[in-house]
Amino acid sequence: MQMGDNAAAKNQHQHHLHNHNQVFDISIDVIPQNDSKCFDDDGRLKRTGNIWTASAHIITAVIGSGVLSLAWAIAQLGWIAGPAVMILFSLVSFYTSSLLSDCYRTGDTVSGKRNYTYMDAVRSILGGAKFKACGLIQYLNLFGIAIGYTIAASISMMAIKRSDCFHESGDKNPCPMSSTPYMIMFGVAEIMLSQIPDFDQIWWLSIVAAVMSFTYSSIGLGLGIAEVAAAGTIKGNLTGITIGTVTQTQKIWRSFQALGDIAFAYSFSVILIEIQDTVKSPPAESKTMKKAAKISISVTTAFYMLCGCFGYAALGEFAPGNLLTGFGFKHPFWLLDIANATIVVHLIGAYQVFCQPIFAFIEKKAQEQWPESYFISKEFKVPVPGFRPYNLNLFRLVWRTVFVIATTVISMLLPFFNDIVGILGAFGFWPLTVYFPVEMYIAQKKIPKWSTRWVCLQMLSMACLMISIVAGIGSIAGVVLDLKVYRPFKTSY
What we know:
This protein is an all-alpha fold. 67% of the residues lie in helices and 2% in strands. It is built from 16 helices and four strands. A two-stranded antiparallel ribbon has the order 1-2. Strands 3-4 form a two-stranded antiparallel sheet. A hairpin with a 7-residue loop joins strand 3 and strand 4.
């Protein structure tokens, strides 16, 4: 999902951290100051976000590594179905995000009780069992994204090394190398960064990530345009990759997997409510959010269309699963190095943003379970020259390190960027982007069962479930096929 590189939007968690550190803040949360110029109706400091900041957050969250697999996805589906599927996903994402924005407040959209996160909304509108199911899906999805990002970062690091090797040997050396050392390097960097306890306050991360994702997406787009202009022809055909290049069965699996890749490129619902919680009112937050969703989905769809279509036009049915590392483009090598370096920087930050909710959830549960435990609760002050002392917590040190090691080891065993992206897109798209927003909207608006509106919403949900299932099957089939020829920890060519 793509990438919810959106530290600023998680101000609820930041607020709790802040309260944890500063006791005198508590009065703000206790006394509702409805008429105050400084406080909102829930007693928090006035929110300052507007339609443009919300749009920027969504664009930052959506345009991420998913964009790199779009040329491959369009190559599987062809010139007719590829763009049509992309437009379909953008319309569904826009519609369900509009439904979801009405669930920021429970009951009345103007004066109801605020829900600060997606999970809060599910809990207050749908209740316990669905809340637990949503939590499980969300955290599994975030865990999967951490694996996907580790794979993508190692592929980009290898691409830099390989591109320099090709350049030195004049494209004669196949430049064999293994992804394992690069995954270990990425893992070590993430272990160190994961020990920063209040990562949410590093708002600049969101800005850096946004700049990086636009940089490499634009380089991919620019190379595609240059290649088409130089060749003077547009490659590809109306129905996608031809039988002969792949077998009939492979074409079906790949087409299904392409749906998952495109779904992954649009998955931002999970942070929509967190973004909405940064928006000021009046007007009602849901109005601002619907406009922001329209602007940001239009911008990202146009950008996706350009990247995917120009990538396909330039490389035809041999468009690689990752546009900048599959060596569809080999020159200019320095520009590819810049693009891949920006991907790595982006993913280092994005990994942390996505893992923070898992870290916070487990640490909170552990403290509730064993409040007396010295290992879990005790903070040690470690002096850092030139900075404020670092608060070392033994449980945080051990648990976060184990988490990063687990994601790194799984990545080494399954280093298939495309298939993993497809599985994540399929797994997260229906429940998080469609099912929960539709169910919450029906409950919130008290839409009667079997009314026309209810039936239409359920049909939309069922159709999206079918898409998720076929995309999941296609991606799992892709992993199975890859595993037949793959040997872990071996050198790849």
